[in-house]
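User: Show me an example of a complex going from sequences to structure tokens.

Assistant: Sure. Here are the input components:
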Amino acid sequence: MSHPQLPVVEPEAEAGHDPGRRALLQATAAGAAIASLSACGVDVEAFFRKHFRELSPEELKRTIAKIEADEKQRFGKAVHVGTQGPMPGVFFGYGLDLSRCIGCRRCVYACVKENNQSRADPQIQWIRVLQMDKEHGVDLSHAEIYYEPETVPQPDKFYFPVQCQQCRDPPCVKTCPTQATWKEPDGIVVIDYDWCIGCRCCMAACPYGARHFNLATPTLPAEELNPEQHYLGNRPRPKGVVEKCTFCIQRTRQGRYTACVEVCPVGARKFGNLLDPESEIRKVMETKRVFVFKEELATHPQFYYFYAT
Amino acid sequence: MTERRGVDARWWRATGLAAAAALLLQGRPAAAADPADPKPVTAKSTVADKGGAPPPAEPLISANAPPFSEGIFPCSGCHDPKDPPNTRRRELSFHDEQQSVLSHGEGRWCLDCHDARNRDELHLTSGELVPFTESYRLCGQCHGAKYRDWKVGVHGKRVGQWNGAKTYFLCVNCHNPHTPRFKGVKEVVVDGRTVVTPTLTLIHPMPRPRRPEENHP
């Protein structure tokens, strides 16, 4: 059996060409690529934006102004995009009291609202509340996220909210091919949405299902937009990027509690500075039975589950 | 009764104004405490310090307002302090809605906590009077472990700053003192202020997330 003759590219075919013509061709190709990007609805300025950590203060200022202007045009209201960095001497810790949570999902919707998540198509929720059987304990093979009883809590059930665990050794960060996600000194794992290429390696790597993908342009009603934003947090995301819980970076770096802590009707959620021995989270860790989710994976979360009773 | 409601509303407005004035003057969060009562909330603050956020000027902890029913406070509006109190255990004709749900330990009775001589306050077993805004001291007499946890922020809820001023919720914002087993909470506007108050029934969960097949991007 004989193969059909394939065309062979002569390796030296271009050798004799004029280098000036080649540069011109390259420039034309680049120009065409930019034009086609633009035609596809891609924000060219954002496409070529530098990585957040490489922006000079001047560039950052210009970038923020551009983002704020774009948002004003899109949503018709003024927004503030902050870039506040980590506070020195602060390492965040989060506690969730499983003996208190009643599975009411108030936290899920407070988070959606605070962090400008896509409401529907795609629906994105950074917090997932699992309903589990008391009989089986914390066991993912007996977990249900689509529970919808008339009232909560159901007898014989307990509720196990899961969100980004802000691992000290985050597999998502290790796997990102573009360094679009990294861990900040205060422990928050953040994403530069302009550097995310949407490959979703991080989603595959995360053992907690904490990362969510904007499969389509997020639906975000202008009247529900939270105008108080952070560059690495809740600013509206474009289509095709991954997003996740940032411990409400726009709030906690201002000293405020996260939205989920403030909305929880049973006070099951605790937040504070792990380096401050007087903080609520330290009191929890010193006096209660504390564990981390999927400890065996050695991700070392900064998110602790505990039983206060 | 309408007359009394009017008086109560004025009382609350006056209280609210005084509290607002106190807030402006002292830069403190508006404590729910009666401004006539100078005793501050006694729980200690938990403040991040040592190189953390710039330490807030006055990290004072205030308590959420007690969840009174509309127009019910002050109690002395009906219970004239000059009237001799009837301390006999009996079925009440007015506060029947509290008495009918009373389920708090064995053989408990109104005047174990409410003070017969000063109806606008509660009393400890020692006889010491405590205002409604400090009812946690009363609860803490029996529920010592919970009280300790509450004071350091492990039990109960706080809102505000993790490294500064925060507002505590009182025990009674989540637990109805007459039937304390937790069911749920809701926000209600009573006499012009929003308070968190316990419900007598379990609450509904928010809608479940969509299943993957229900998303249509």
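The lines above are the inputs; the final block is the predicted structure for all two components together. Residues 1-60 of chain B have pLDDT under 50 and may be disordered.
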